[in-house]
Design a protein that fits this description.
2 domains, Beta-lactam-related, elongated, hydrolase activity, Beta-lactamase, six-stranded antiparallel β-sheet, Beta-lactam/transpept-like, Serine hydrolase, 12 helices, alpha+beta, Immunoglobulin-like, 19 strands, hydrolase, four-stranded antiparallel β-sheet
């Protein structure tokens, strides 16, 4: 598995063609993402970038919010704190926040552990007007800890104070020292209303996904050595919502619950994703998806037209496009034979010729489908200033849209 350097912008790529991805299918994915208000999308295979695209003027160095996808950073950081002996997730939360952090009777408050905060099973009242309020007056007893699952933000947010109380340092400082700097991430938690929200570049989110794919190690550098906690984090954490670990969402289970309801639904959370997929998910479609069996990590940042707390439908739709990326198995394509591009390999100008002498336009792309040049039948793609390697030429006429692979020598 490949790991990019922890400084600088170098990051090795794998050509989509190596995975059998069709350029027209990639274009369909990018069109869907753009139409759904995306800002950034990356797909990694075994650590190398296969697809990377930005939309709506967003730049690779721009920061974006993770929303609730950042909960997974907190879960990882709690694991590091336990690994270093600062806390135990089986301890009562009151050991770190003090008695009276809720208005529950003290004997009921004492039942709530750090593990309950990680698994959304504190039993605190989810019918209060503001689920983000962390004031004790907002944290009311409803059920014993462990007896109900509900996506309640406030108890999660208080994990920040648990970490700070246990380690005697801020969440940002501790995460930066133990995780962010060692793996080359950027970013920080910032207060947004009652929440602490992580902001970073898209590539930093992908780095965190790669750390997870490699089971808590960055290359040969161990970050999380507590294998028991790591495995608990990405497996079912309680018997109420089988599709929830420690703040991570899990695919491949027989049922799932979602934010905003106490209902249980049958089947996989993401029905068209591989069963071993797990993901970080946040409002407006902030997604970090990891599929260990395929060595895949993909991230999506952006806005979203619907107002769901976590838009799992969008995640499913993205998987539809990813599953469709591979070209059909047929090796004969009559349409492509109507068009010739030569010389191939090319050094300077490439000639595009139609057997039917069709009017056409052309566009030149890098192997990762970054647009670089366009023209029509009265001009030719000029490769003189480009580096050696593989490129794609998209040819469009009234009858056809085809793609040709071209090598530059």
């Amino acid at each position: 598995m490949y790991f990019p350097p922890t400084s600088g912008t170098a990051w090795e790529t794998t050509s989509p063609a190596m995975l059998g991805y069709c350029p027209e299918k990639i274009e369909a994915l990018y069109t869907f993402l753009e139409e759904n208000q995306s800002k950034a999308f990356l797909l990694l295979k075994d650590g190398k970038i296969v697809l990377e695209q930005y939309f709506d003027g967003f730049q690779p160095t721009d920061n974006w919010y993770w929303a609730s996808a950042g909960k997974t950073i907190t879960a990882f950081t709690v694991g590091i704190a336990q690994q270093e002996g600062f806390l135990s997730i089986d301890d009562p939360t009151a050991d770190y926040l003090g008695e009276g952090w809720t208005t529950a009777p003290l004997e009921k408050e004492q039942l709530i552990t750090v593990k309950n905060q990680l698994s959304m099973t504190t039993g605190l009242d989810y019918t209060v007007p503001n689920l983000g309020c962390t004031d004790p007056t907002c944290l009311l007893y409803l059920a014993d800890a462990g007896e109900q699952w509900y996506y309640h933000n406030a108890p999660y947010t208080l994990l920040d104070q648990v970490i700070e109380g246990a380690t005697n340092t801020t969440l940002n400082q501790y995460f930066s020292q133990k995780v962010r700097i060692p793996i080359g991430m950027n970013g920080t938690f910032l207060p947004v209303e009652e929440n602490n929200v992580y902001f970073s570049t898209p590539r930093s989110m992908a780095r965190f996904g790669l750390l997870m794919l490699n089971e808590g190690s960055w290359g040969t550098t161990p970050i999380m050595t507590d294998a028991t906690y790591f495995n608990e984090m990405i497996n079912t954490s309680q018997d109420l919502n089988l599709s929830y670990g420690y703040l991570w969402w899990l695919n491949g289970k027989s049922s799932f619950m979602v934010p905003g309801t106490t209902a249980t639904f049958p089947g996989f959370l993401i029905p068209n994703a591989p069963a071993d997929t797990y993901l970080a998910a946040g409002k407006n479609g902030q997604f970090l998806s990891i599929t260990p069996s395929e060595g895949l990590v993909w991230i999506r940042m952006g806005d979203n037209p619907d107002d769901l707390p976590v838009p799992f439908l969008l995640n499913t739709q993205i998987w539809d496009k990813i599953n469709d990326l591979v070209c059909p198995l047929s090796t004969t394509d009559i349409t492509k034979e109507k068009w010739q591009v030569f010389p191939n390999p090319v050094v300077h100008e490439l000639t595009i010729q139609s057997a039917e002498h069709l009017s056409h336009t052309w566009e030149l792309y890098t192997h990762t489908l970054q647009f670089i040049q366009r023209g029509d039948q009265f001009s030719s793609p000029d490769f003189s200033v480009y580096a050696q390697g593989m490129y794609w030429v998209k040819i469009q006429s009234d009858k056809d849209v085809i793609w040709k692979k071209v090598l530059k020598n």
